[in-house]
## 1
Amino acid sequence: CVLITAAAPALSAASPPAKHLVLVVADDLGYADLGYAGSQIATPNIDKLASAGVKLAHFYVQRACSPTRGALLTGRYNIRYGFQSGVLTSQNNWSLPLDETLLPQFVKRVDARSKCHAVGKWHLGYHRWEHTPTFRGFDSYLGYYSGDEDYYTHQGDCGGFDLHDDSRPDCGAGCSRHAWEAVGEYSTHLFTRRAVSIIREHDAAAPLFLYLPYQAVHVPDQVPAQYVAPYKFARVEGTNARNLFAGMLSCLDEGVGNVTRALRRKGILDETLLWFQTDNGAATPACGGWTGGQNWPLRGGKC
């Protein structure tokens, strides 16, 4: 199951190549969850990107998280590097192989002035420092290395606190730090705030690549109450999952709007390819149970 929207102002065959790239990835978003696809969930900012840009209706992702992220950042099918079997877990002592060249490394080959930043979920391995984002081409990273975590406490499925602030290239021992000050801050707000800060502080003379893989709308179903309040979907199988999911998606949409406005205020929106996609479809009953997302009319989903 897949949804992707590629958007840039006045995008056409005659448009000059974009100078900057902002790549936004939603986690476990269903094909039918966005407003423009007929959903009753309000996503006005993403809908606006879709209407002003290009919707890729036959763009396909992998069935789960790590395989899609590996393919996205390498440009290669995941059987090439051993990611065809599913997601990495906290017990894995292997990662995306170091002989794979990732997108930020390609970007810097094209223009050595480029600045590349990652904010959000990694999930491509972290058993050694050289497998973490700032050793793979990114100049900075704020986020979690593992597959999921609590949106507020940032306790990850690794069994401990998993929110890292890596402030420079090759930021390993003695550099990488736990962002304890973010305990209690909702991750969608946190990641949006960092993304907006990166855009605001960037030297627009140099190309920017911002990779923004949000935690939302992955489980656990957690979101500030004000985002859930507008929704009154019926309970399904005794759960309030659809309403919580709707609130999480509304907050994500707000974040996409804030990032778009930051690009406009910086004066670089017209030079930016703003790309939005999901990593896979919404979770299916066969793989983790129903978490509020909708994949209709497609047959598949996350598994």
## 2
Amino acid sequence: LLSSEAVHSLVAQIVLAEPMAALVELDLSHNVHIGAAGIEALASAAAHAHFNLEQLRLRGCELDGTAGAPLAHIVAAARGLAELDVRDNSLDDAAVTAIARTCEGRPESLGRPTALLVDGNPIAARVFQLVVLAQMRAAGHVGTIGLWGHYTGAVAALLHAQRDPTIGCLVLEGAVADLKQLISEWTAKGREQGYAVPALVLAAALRMIRRTVRQRAGFEPFEIKPMDKVGSCFIPALFVVATSDPVVQPHHGRQLHAAYAGDKNLIEVDGDNLSARSQFLLDSAAIFVTAALRVPPDLALDAGAVAATGEDGGAGG
């Protein structure tokens, strides 16, 4: 296994050596002792004339948030870097966000966009969504983007759209109006079913959850209140409410729909938010998305394709 010092030597003797200028792929995956110092060695060389890597793989290297800045610098400086693989590390929300933003803003003079692979890092749904959007926009051949979110994905989509008016439309299934409200409802339901939790135990558990989320994801979990944001969001939105969902009760979606400022529609469906969706919902969502994104008729899915999607179990996300 390579250490950070070994990476320094590798960069100086191999990556930047003139005879190795044709080196376009470097795989350092699973070298768990590289650390941020090793990534900084790579970053310091990224703008060098002989740094011609097209693929840099750092999967499973136990990199944490401190590696975010040098990884972002590599993306910003390396010519022709087509792929950065940092899957299965411990990069946090801030680190992945910085890298994704750099990928999105990468100048054309550096060549093709950089594909960023981040699966397996402890990041929130909203950050993974940001990565996907940044990659789509950096590709340069994507037009207006619509978001279809389910449960936490619906909350992430809604909160992102409130900050990003370029999103074309939203389809939101099982969105939560207020996380604190949801926890209170779960607690009350548990008491009704005979699973009473002492107040002190519940308070301690919530403090632990709050502390863990703040440390690992860098945000306050109990400040997740989409109800406070929908009044200033004007992107066309379709709210899907499952009338028998045991996790997110239907009044959450109804509250969000009622308070939403933009063009909106509400469809209530039988079952829960994991149930197969009816053809009516799939057709309605297809019509909504097609109209909101102004999809040309020659690019729209035909009825047969939508029906096949319905047979596979409906929409998710």
## 3
Amino acid sequence: NSYLSHSYSVLASKNKNKKQSPQLSQTSPMNLRIIFLLSCLLLSDLIQSTSASSTSSTTIAIRKNVFGHSKRRSSTAPLPAPLTKARGPVSNASKHALTTLRGGNTKADPVSDFLNAVDLFGTGVFAFSGAVTAGKKGMDLLGMLYISIISAIGGGTVRDIVLDSGTVFWFRQPIYFKICAVTTIMTFLLWPTLESRLGWKDSAVPICTADAFGLGAFAVIGTQKAVELGLDPIMWPVVGLITCTFGGITRDVMCLQNPRVMYPYRTLYATAPLLGSIAYTLLMQKSLVDVDTQVAATISFMVTFTTRVLSFNRSWRLPHWKNDKDLVWNEPIMNTLTYDESEDEGSAASLENTTPGMPPQKIQM
């Protein structure tokens, strides 16, 4: 009994400290200086990449070499020519990433420029979400970087691989990787302090709104990718949904969480980009309505963004079977046992089954 009591006491102490704010106590000052210096270098490189100007001829040549294939390339076709030789013009011409979407539409128009800016912004927001999730799960800096990349650009990666559309977009446009790296390092350094001292929450309305903003751009870009590859219109929303959600699904699986887009216990998420992609698909059908591409993209973005924002504080859910296990999506996929010291007065040890969403049940041992 004394051995069991000691074991349960240790388990109870771990559970009590489970939800404390993350700290950087295990990181030495020297490591922090190195991490901060690395983040400054990445940030300066990112700023230089996005602000560097390039001649129109260089930009057009890059677009032809990389994005000129509008149709699906066969497996035997040669890959595009390398983007750069050492530190050639592409490193100074990374501004083309601001005028070409992540493997999608490459037309220069105000709507595409706006969507691409939101796309880069949304990449940072999704990377932040992944980094915070990984940090709260106890991962180190490298683990946080892995999860942030998966969260931000995992959906587009899966899309490009499944569709065999050539080199994955963020290998052609490294600005996406740079955004993920800078966001992860800054989150690692700053977020514990912001959360513990200022009370900031990663589920706050401004962050969720920024997430919805990026979600709208991802939905339009993913759907446009399906259009350019000549897929059947019924598959356009599928490609848009993959682009928006498969990064988050992979993140949740790797972090041992219930994928939130598959469960009805949180607000609607995947439904918003699905509706936006369907709207784009219907508007692009000439037999139904004759709408310009820019108008269709704008309406699709607004449908996705508005649906996601309106679902924040509403109990909208998709149809689902009723069951007794009302699991919360962000809890570990397992039952946790906590030791109740007040019940241990005799030879029997009392435990509580604290399955998330279920009332505690006493288990006598």
